DNA sequence: TTGTAAGCGTTATCAA
DNA sequence: TTGATAACGCTTACAA
């Protein structure tokens, strides 16, 4: 069932049928005739052929570091409806935290105009990333990290952790920090700097080795908390770079008879659903992930339509959610 | 940069270049000449044109009910590598638990051969679903539900909850159950029946109204637990259809001074990451979600290659994970 | 082993 | 307002 058959059945040329679907530059009678045939046959134009001819895919590729992450899923749930409403399909490419695959996907998407635009939910930027980004011939928005020269939407991690730490230090004297790799500028470097600067401002001296390095997992948070409490048993607050890490810390403290928040205060970042479930409920930073996804999608829409050619940078606001794990 | 230019630069016909990429029916010299040109130009064949010509998209559509779900993400992480290794891209379509969108996506995918195959991570089957499935002219595997006449991979929910309940009843006399909608056969009906049959076998009488109906959320678990404990304060075990529900129940019990497992035992299903974090750690059913995803992907691969035309049904094994929330 | 030529199903240009 | 006609970039008989 192709456009030729429809044209023949409706007694018009295939160009007219094409117009029926696109410009709409068709007389009433022909329009009616064509409509009748389409209703009867259930004809739907071939997307592939259209893509080949027009060079537009109506697909946006979203590259995500992992699928099972509260923050990522919130961003995606912000992105999807905005793009769908604008007539785009969303192709999710999951890299499972593999930087090489991330680069691969960028190449794949751009090389042959697989997609009309890309949203990169970023973590780290290797030289390979930068190179791939430079060669990208497709509209792009970077989400969750800031990268100069590109349109970005990201969270104010520095300020958030700085403020949160400041609040904790009102009642704590010996804080420790569990962070993630500094290559991840947002979650690693910025949050850590927020912690350090807050300590400095409060006149709290932070030992050189005060940072433990964790993965983004609960288990990892557990072992880091263990390392901290064994090295410095008088620690009275643990600021964690993510909620997951904080959950691990909470578990360690609980199992070792340390009370939260009386003996040790604990904080996370992310305000995941779990944060309200653990005992005690976790004080954390609420990031507007979903909204940032919407924002990124809108920006991309602007770039794709060509209206909006100049790169911009959006830093999202945050909220501190005080719960029972701090005093 | 198209195949014609490459052909010209290499001094061969475009058919030979095409063969270079496909059959490989090319002499050594020409092959070398073509390779040289390709290396120099970085030429990559247009996927769109190839699709148009061959009718193969090399894309598999995976329809998922929600992105932020532990079980779904595990299934997807099983599916993706299997399909990628076989040369397929995975297009994730998120329906956000909207049955109508689920049907829409099935139509979209099948109508114009957008994809070579579909994996449907199913929850419920409405008449609209059944109709759309019937019209689907694309290889399909149903994941996480059983549906006769179609290839399926699903979890043994009945047996799992039956066995788990049996264990709980060794030390409990007044069990209650928090379930989800029975329209969801796997998570709703099967788990509930497992609970009821186990009670029957142990000679425990279950009041008619012993089931509370919850959403798949923590909050919902909280209110159902509340309803149960108010209606039947002597309840000494709450079997929950999902981990999330169990977390809510745990929170309610904790806040109301009831000890778990001494006063009330609690169980979930799913063995999500959270299950090891909450206090006390949750006894639950471990389903092999990731493996079931792999299995479904392999089945689809078989159907798509045409080898494997007869529908099959795979029921996965499970494990009961006993932790601190039961005795 | 290679080249020629005929499509795949559209849209865009142009003249009518 | 319409219809021929020429692309879009590739694969695949078929013939050489």
Strand-residue fraction of chain A?
Answer: 15-25%
Total number of strands of chain A: 12
Give the largest interface.
Answer: A-B, 40 and 39 residues
CATH topology of the largest domain in chain A: Rossmann fold
InterPro entries (chains A, B): HTH_LacI (IPR000843), LacI/GalR-like_sensor (IPR046335), Lambda_DNA-bd_dom_sf (IPR010982), Peripla_BP_I (IPR028082)
Protein name (chains A, B): LacI family DNA-binding transcriptional regulator
GO molecular function (chains A, B): DNA binding
Keywords (chains A, B): DNA-binding, Transcription, Transcription regulation
Q: Care to describe what's here?
A:
The structure is a homodimer of 327-residue chains. Chain A has 327 residues and is α/β, with parallel strands linked by helices. Chain A folds into 3 domains: 3-54, 434 Repressor (Amino-terminal Domain); 59-155 and 289-317, Response regulator (Rossmann fold), CATH 3.40.50; 157-286, Response regulator (Rossmann fold, 3-Layer(aba) Sandwich). In chain A, 46% of the residues lie in helices and 16% in strands. Chain A has 12 helices and 12 strands. Chain A has helices at 3-10, 14-21, 28-41, 47-54, 70-85, 99-111, 127-135, 157-168, 185-201, 218-231, 243-255, 289-305, and strands at residues 59-64, 89-94, 117-121, 140-143, 152-155, 175-179, 211-213, 237-240, 265-267, 284-287, 313-316, 318-321. Chain A has a 6-stranded parallel sheet, with helices on both faces. A 4-stranded parallel sheet of chain A has the order 7-6-8-9, sandwiched between helices. In chain A, α1 (3-10) crosses α2. The longest helix of chain A has 17 residues, at 185-201. Chain A is elongated, with a radius of gyration of 26 Å. The model of chain A has no long low-confidence stretch (mean pLDDT 92). The A-B interface holds A 44-49, 51-52, 57, 67-68, 70, 73-74, 76-77, 80, 89-94, 96, 111-114, 218, 247-248, 250-251, 254, 273-274, 276-279 and B 44-49, 51-52, 57, 67-68, 70, 73-74, 76-77, 80, 89-92, 94, 96, 111-114, 218, 247-248, 250-251, 254, 273-274, 276-279. Chain A binds a DNA duplex (16 and 16 nucleotides) through α2 and α4.
């Amino acid at each position: 069932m192709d456009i030729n058959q429809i044209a023949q059945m409706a007694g018009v040329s295939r160009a007219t049928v094409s117009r029926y679907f696109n410009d709409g530059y068709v007389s009433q009678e022909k329009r009616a005739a064509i409509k009748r045939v389409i209703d009867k046959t259930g004809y739907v134009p071939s997307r592939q052929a259209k893509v080949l001819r027009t060079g537009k895919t109506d697909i946006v590729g979203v590259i995500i570091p992992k699928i099972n992450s509260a923050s990522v899923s919130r961003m995606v749930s912000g992105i999807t409806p905005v793009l769908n409403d604008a007539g785009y399909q969303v192709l999710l490419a999951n890299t499972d935290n593999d930087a090489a695959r991330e680069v691969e996907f960028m190449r794949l998407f751009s090389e042959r105009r697989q997609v009309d635009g890309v949203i990169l939910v970023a973590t780290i930027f290797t030289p390979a990333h930068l190179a791939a980004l430079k060669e990208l011939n497709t509209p792009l928005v970077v989400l969750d990290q800031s990268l100069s020269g590109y349109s970005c939407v990201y969270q104010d991690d520095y300020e958030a952790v700085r403020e949160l730490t400041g609040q904790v230090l009102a009642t704590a004297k010996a804080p420790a920090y569990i962070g993630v790799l500094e290559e991840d500028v947002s979650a690693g470097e910025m949050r850590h700097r927020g912690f350090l600067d807050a300590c400095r401002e409060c006149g709290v001296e932070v030992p050189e080795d005060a940072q433990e390095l964790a993965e983004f997992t609960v288990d990892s948070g557990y072992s880091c908390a263990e390392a901290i409490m064994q090295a410095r048993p008088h620690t009275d607050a643990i600021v964690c770079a993510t909620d997951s890490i904080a959950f691990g810390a909470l578990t360690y403290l609980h199992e070792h008879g340390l009370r939260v928040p009386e003996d040790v205060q604990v904080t996370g970042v992310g305000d995941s659903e779990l944060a309200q479930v653990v005992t005690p409920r976790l004080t954390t930073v609420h990031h507007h992930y979903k909204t940032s996804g919407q924002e990124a999608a809108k920006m991309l829409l602007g770039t794709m339509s060509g209206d909006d050619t100049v790169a911009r940078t959006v830093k999202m606001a945050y909220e501190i959610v005080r719960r029972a794990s701090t005093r």
